[in-house]
Write a structure and sequence with these properties.
The protein is an alpha/beta fold and about 160 residues long. It is about 40% helix and about 15% strand. It contains five helices and four strands, in the order βαβααβαβα. Bound molecules: 4-nitrophenyl phosphate.
Length: about 160
């Protein structure tokens, strides 16, 4: 791949799941020595300009990552040319992303868990109405997917 990989992780609100996916990917890429860009966005505009949910900030902090300065934003059409990959956290997100994809979009759009062998077609469950254990489960899912995604990008590069 000539262009530096650039990942956009997309959920509904961009305050719970996709900031954690972005953080997990940044960590996995750094550990693997992969140079890549990462960002996250929501399909909805509910939380534009807001920091992540305090429960996501706490979950990332437990893994040693500070995401308190991330700010929510909504996906825009330019993202389909800025990013090489757009990863949807669930099926509704995937459908909404595809519905706004401009003609000639560069980015490969897929479900995040499709990266994990044996978890293809799975959604990362929305922890918004859940408790701490749901956020821990989200972190485990996005961390596995991030490591698998990094492996895939490294394999594509060589
Ligand atoms: P996220 O979770 O999509 O993982 O950020 C949600 C955040 C906010 C809402 C729903 C889900 N909400 O309805 O405001």
């Amino acid at each position: 791949m000539n262009q530096k990989p650039a990942m956009l992780f997309v959920c509904l609100g961009n305050i719970c799941r996709s900031p954690l996916a972005e953080a997990a990917f940044r960590k996995a890429a750094e550990e693997a020595g992969l140079e890549a860009e990462a960002d996250s966005a929501g399909t909805a505009a509910y939380h534009v300009g807001e920091p992540p949910d305090p429960r996501s900030i706490e979950t990332a902090a437990r893994a040693g990552i500070d995401i308190s300065d991330y700010l929510g934003r909504q996906i825009v059409r330019d993202d389909f040319t800025r990013f090489t990959h757009i990863l949807a956290l669930d099926h509704a997100n995937l459908r909404d992303i595809r519905s706004i994809a401009p003609v000639g979009a560069l980015a490969q759009v897929s479900l995040l868990m499709d990266m994990v062998p044996g978890r293809e077609g799975a959604a990362v469950a929305d922890p918004y109405y859940g408790g701490e254990e749901n956020f821990t489960e989200t972190w485990e899912d996005v961390s596995r997917a991030a490591r698998a995604l990094v492996e895939r990008l490294l394999a594509e590069r060589s």
